[in-house]
Amino acid sequence: MPWWQNIPFLSLLLCLLSAAVCFVLPSRASRIWSRSVLGLCAAGAALLLFFLLRENAGPFTYMMGHFPAPWGNEIRCGVLEALLAALFPLIMLCALVSGSPWLSGAARGVSSGRESACDALCMLLSAALLAQIYSNDLFTCYVFVEIMTLTACALIVFRGTGKALAAAMRYMVMNLVGSGLFLLGVALLYDLTGHLLMEYLHTSIRALVLSGRHQRSLTLILALITSGLGIKSALFPFHSWVPDAYSSGVPSSNAIVSSLVSKGYILLLMKIYARVFGWDAVLASRVDLVLLLFAMAGMIFGSLAAIRTRDFLRMTAWSSVAQIGYIYLGIGLGAGAGYQAALFHLIVHAFSKALLFLAGGHLQAAAGGAGDLESLSGAARRKPWAGGCWTLAACALTGLPFTGGLVSKLLLGQEALRHSLPVAAAVLAVLALSTLLNVLYFLRTAMILWSPEKSPAPAAAPPMGSPPVTPAPRFPLSAPALGLLALGILLTFLLASPLLEALETGLIQF
Amino acid sequence: MDLQALLDNRVEAAAIVLFGIGLTTLLLNRNLIRKIIGFSFMDSAVFLFLASEGYIEGRTAPVQNILSARPAGAFVSPIPAGLVLTGIVVSVSVTALMLALTVRLYRHYHTLNLDEILHLARREEE
Amino acid sequence: MKADLDRDLVSSLDEALPEESHLDSGHLHRHDAGVARQDRRLAAGENRAARVSLLVYRSISVLAALAVILILLWGVLDLPLFGRGNNPVENEVSLRYLQSGLQEGGAVNLVANMILDYRAFDTLGESNVLFAACCTVILLLRRIQDRESAVSPLGEASPSALPEDPVLALGARVLCPVILLFGIYIILNGHLGPGGGFSGGAVMGAGLILLRNALGTERIGRFFSYRTFRRAVFAALSFYALSKAWSFYTGANRLPSFIPAGTPGAILSAGLILPLNIAVGLVVCCTMYGFFALFEKGDI
Questions:
Q1: For residue range A92-102, what is the model confidence (pLDDT) as tens digits?
Q2: In angstroms, how far apart are the furthest CA atoms of chain C?
Q3: Residues A169, C141: Cα–Cα separation, whole Å
Q4: Contact call for residues A363 and A316 (beta carbons, < 8 A)
Q5: ipTM of the complex model
Q6: Which run of H or E residues covers position A63?
């Protein structure tokens, strides 16, 4: 076995180990440690991707222990996994170093122990994300899904304000429902097949489908798993917790929760469709149509809600509902090119939503910590680089040229044309309408942000009642991190064809 | 519905009924403590379900005997036991987290009703 | 109703600040305020509309529960039959666990083989779930400004400083050694019979909680402070991760692992399972005790 095949396992275990290490280190050391581990993981996965592409090797499985597949755990890695495993820690790293991490946004009662605990939680979250990417075992996925749920809750609640607490409670309730449904689905699946590893599950399910037995149970399992993960990844009718949860933390945590955590669940769902059930079984149960409908409804509804709200962060959060709709639209459109479009948009959205929240955090700080749109007027002129990054991210989510968003919309449209006429017409119409709505609210916000200032910068002292405002945090690395994310958005457009090629190879191996 | 199937799979059916009760309590009850109880119900139901999957009549717990090793046919499968163990740990962790959140929310808003809490939170924001 | 809520809001804002300063007398005061306000609300809210809406709410809940149950039953009754020997669960996977578990894993307790050897990665994740919850509860409830070793002067007059109860003190004195010893036995016996790190750790955690209640936080803080807690959790989790990293690495690369297996049935046998059980037991014990301490006083 070539040495580089150890990288996935090493990065996973390194993240888990650093969680424990960060827990005992003092805050400064734990900060440095966690950031460097994230960088190392990203670099390692990039190296892995390089080797996979150079040797033109197929996907490989890696035994987690001394026992081969149906008995022991295993992880599996192909081009797609390596690509995502390089991007996710990178985005997380950017989010952590750039946006006023735990220090400034944190409310009263910060003690240094809290910071180390938070770094430990971030390491656990990245381990869980890596596990969702690599794991080839359904039950391992469930365990790490729970780690993601808990750590994301900690990130949401970190600020400790009443609003954050309430948001975290709503988030937890919905996510626990999701976990419960998912776990029941896994338990039923185990009852039907006696396996937990994906390949073996697939073989058993195939045999069941061919023999025509237990069809009702299979449909129920598919529904349980889809709705469980749909709730957790904020698919449209289950999105009620999103606007609060994505807008009540500090910028870093908002960025991480909105751009990475939901992606982990979506990836897991795609994996289950592709590797466990097989796309034929999914088609046979008409789940794809349901996903299409929900996705399209979410695209419209999320954008409408974003237009209606006057709160800067909530608007960004609502736009997530719409963007998650795009990803599910791709999944609903079908296994090959639809998946490709979904994954492409997943990457674009991870970059741009993180950038949107981080740059938005800087803009808010420039405006004195205000939350509603009107008081942000002129903020971008005070911090042009943050304003520029925000605008770029908004362009990407709208789908303007020179950003990856255009490519994913084109891909989605193209794939829709291969379907029957009503489906294609509906998808194209919804795509056009949703783009229009995106333009509406992003353009409005951008105009407010860039508008010439009416009054000089707001008085230094905020009003008495408001929570303590960020004391103009200085983060030397924050501009490079935002720049990196912005570069990512541009590169998804400029390097779209090699990226798509890699995704295609990855999907063949998936 | 098929009554015979219901009788044959009565343990699973009981687990499912519990699961449904827990799920709706978690979702629809407004009291935070009751929500947590609902969550515990739901998880316990899944454990009951998992345990019943592994059960086979006439077999014992999978602990070997050193002096006279018994054949594999004497034991039930160890996998459901392991899965239930994992599930219990997860459930304990989540319950602790939910209770901690509830404590903080009660200290802040002096109520356990989620509707009221959300209402107050919205007001606080304005 | 509106005025009521306004008053609530004012009172909660008033208390928002002292909340973080942890005067423990404030605790009682707040509680009283809460009760008084609840009475007020009961008096004001006992009107018809509220009762009707509650009724509607409840009936919707019942209907939803019935719907969920029926949908699930519809699918579940299609499953393989309960308790039969030829179910799909009885396949080559569990057969190997049962047949060769004793030789391959070395533990007499075949479940311990499965969770700590065959499928150890799941269990590693599982102890980290506990760790994640513990970190989050610390974030939510830990209140003192990180004076690690000592209990703050305010804390000594803590709510648990009840007049020492002779029954509790004597009972704890008698029971605690037995409970802790029993917990240790369960952990160390985990590969030889029913037991293991999770159950043993929970028993030990319960013993520590009893001890804390009987001795008071100050005396238990002398040997179990927040610093000890952090170090114990760190030691256990990092040992777990490192030893499993070694065994995954050697397993996947087909290298010899150099870990002696021992004879099955002896106390020092089953390779890594015994040390892992101890590590898991430590994590579980610390977390259980930590949860209790954080809930009770906001510090460990």
A1: 998 888 755 44
A2: 76
A3: 15
A4: no
A5: 0.93
A6: strand A60-64
A79-98 helix and A27-54 helix, angle to the nearest 10 degrees: 150
pLDDT in tens, chain A (510 residues): 788 888 998 999 999 999 999 888 887 788 888 889 999 999 999 988 888 888 887 788 888 888 887 888 888 888 899 999 999 999 999 888 875 544 444 433 444 567 778 888 999 999 999 999 999 999 999 999 999 999 999 989 888 788 889 999 999 999 999 999 999 999 989 888 888 889 899 998 888 888 888 888 888 899 999 999 999 998 888 888 888 888 888 888 888 999 999 999 999 999 999 889 888 888 888 888 899 999 999 999 999 999 998 888 889 999 999 999 999 999 988 878 889 999 999 999 999 999 999 888 888 887 777 778 888 888 888 888 888 999 999 999 988 888 888 999 999 999 889 888 888 999 999 999 999 999 988 998 998 888 886 655 444 444 444 444 444 445 667 788 888 888 888 888 888 888 888 888 888 887
CB-CB contact of C88 with A192 (8 Å): yes
Q: How far apart are CA A179 and CA B98, in angstroms?
A: 14
Cβ of A122: how many Cβ atoms within 10 Å?
A: 32
Q: Are A385 and A445 in contact (CB under 8 A)?
A: no
Report the distance separating Cα A328 and Cα C198, nearest Å. Answer: 39
Chain B residues with CB under 8 Å of C89 CB are 53-54, 77, 79-80
> Least CB-CB distance to A143: which of B80, B86, B104?
B86
- Domain count within chain A: 1
Query: CA C106, CA C261: separation in Å to the nearest integer?
Result: 6
Domain holding B28, by residue range, is: 3-56+75-125
Give the integer Cα–Cα distance in Å for C277 and C240: 9
Residue A472 φ/ψ region, left for φ over 0, alpha for ψ in the -120 to 50 degree band, beta for the rest: left
For residues C152 and C162, the answer to whether their CB atoms sit within 8 Å is no
Domain-wise residue ranges, chain C: 2-76, 107-297
The verdict on a CB contact (< 8 Å) between C133 and B97 is yes
Q: What is the CATH number of the domain that holds B101?
A: 1.10.287.3510
Closest-CA residue in chain C for A220?
C75
**Does residue C235 contact residue C282 with C-beta atoms inside 8 Å?**
yes
Mark yes or no for CB contact C64/B69 under 8 Å.
Answer: no
Mutation target for C interface from A15, A66, A115: give the one with most C CBs within 10 A. Answer: A66
What residue numbers bound the domain in which A369 lies?
Answer: 286-453+477-510
How many Å lie between the alpha carbon of C79 and the closest alpha carbon of chain A? 7
Taking alpha carbons only, the member of A299, A289, A291 closest to residue A409 is A299
Domain count, chain B: 1
- As a whole number of angstroms, the distance between CA C27 and CA C19 comes to 8
Structure-token match 């009751």, residue found: B34
* A383 φ/ψ angles, rounded to the nearest 5 degrees: -130, 80
Quick count: other Cβ atoms within 10 Å of Cβ B53? Answer: 30
Is residue A155 included in any domain, yes or no?
Answer: no
Q: Which of residues 344-383 of A touch B (CB under 8 A)?
A: 371
User: A326: which 2 tokens?
Assistant: 């795009």
Extended strands (E) in chain C: none
How far, CA to CA in Å, does A356 sit from each of A369, A445, C291? 16, 12, 37
Query: Cα torsion for C65, C66, C67, C72, to the nearest 10°?
Result: 90
A398 part of a folded domain: yes
Q: Distance (Å, rounded) from C-alpha A65 to C-alpha A73?
A: 7
A154 located within any domain: no
Contact partners for chain A, using 3 or more CB pairs closer than 8 A, are: B, C
Nearest Cα to Cα of residue A238 among A224, A254, A227: A227
User: Chain-centre distance of CA A37, in angstroms?
Assistant: 20
Q: Which two tokens stand for residue B97?
A: 């987290």
Exposed, middle or buried: residue A108 (CB in 10 Å: 0-12, 13-18, 19+)?
Answer: middle
